[in-house]
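Many introductory courses stop at the sequence. We go one step further.
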Amino acid sequence: MNSIPKALQEEYERAKKEVSKDLNKEFEYKTALAEKDYANTTDRLNDKIEALTKKLEKSNQLNVTLQEKLDKAYIEIKELATKTVETAGTVKFIKTSTDNE
């Protein structure tokens, strides 16, 4: 009769070790999977940040280019207006019969 409780205790210990081993394996697997998932998510977010940074730099450069073109256009308009005013002073208007009415 002493052998039955001893056999039960041994079987209990063996099963406990086996379940602990399986649970540890599962924990390690899930931990490794979570770490890989985290690394992949981080990599994707870093790629997205890099792409958005490049897009922002490109937009900023486009803004600078457009501002330079706008400034140049204002200068050309100012020069044209100045020339128009200078030429308007030398132009003589001829009266026509429709002006008298």
